[in-house]
Amino acid sequence: xSNKMLVDSTHPEETRVVVLRGHRVEExxxxxxxxxxxxxxxxxxxxxxxxxxxxxAFIDYGGNRHGFLAFxxxxxxxxxxxVADRQALIAEDERAQRAAEAEAxxxxxxxxxxxxxxxxxxxxxxxxxxxxxxxxxxxxVAEPPAAVADATEGLT
Length: 156
Fold this sequence. Notes:
alpha+beta, 3 domains, 2 helices, 6 strands, 27% strand, elongated
């Protein structure tokens, strides 16, 4: 079978390339002047999840951009991370974990303080609530028992 590469650059804003094997299209690619080319670029990325069933890894290469990397696309030399780089990565992960734990502890302390203040306010409100409720519902002022006895003597 013959292999052919066809290039169409009749339009200045777009270039199209097709690789044919016999009469079958093996690969198609195009570049546009309006679109930034991402294919073929080299990026530094962090593996966010490894999916063994797909034989691939999901990666985050910054700027809220994520990617998919097949294991077959990784050259075996890249599996050997230099010792200094490995130690730097481990130290960075530990720093990030400590910072996350400190933030969680700080938030937990703030929530506990807020809960304590709310509890103290509730206790104060409960202590004064019965007196306020009597005055509001009856509109009467409590009199001493002697005054009540004097008022009831003339009624019998």
